[in-house]
Design goal:
single chain, alpha+beta, two-stranded antiparallel sheet, 2 strands, 33% helix, 14% strand, elongated
């Protein structure tokens, strides 16, 4: 991975406790930017028909994961 901004040198110059604090701040910032429901597990079955075979199909307008049964999925 290319270090275009020189962050590698900055991190190498940090003390271990500074690195740990920075990691915590970065994880907190990234978690705050994740869409609602990003950590959700796929459903056991399609919420519409109950089919146990589903695929993920993006997110709806509210940001929730959209799943659809494979048998009901039409291309086109």
């Amino acid at each position: 991975m290319e270090d275009r901004f020189g962050y590698g040198a900055i991190v190498r110059a940090m003390r271990p406790e500074e690195r740990e604090e920075m990691l915590g701040l970065l994880l907190e910032a990234v978690a705050g930017e994740m869409p609602a429901g990003a950590e959700e597990e796929p459903p056991e079955a399609c919420p519409r028909c109950g089919c146990p075979r589903t695929v993920r199909r993006g997110r709806d307008a509210d940001g929730a994961q959209s799943d659809v049964a494979i048998l009901n999925w039409t291309v086109g």
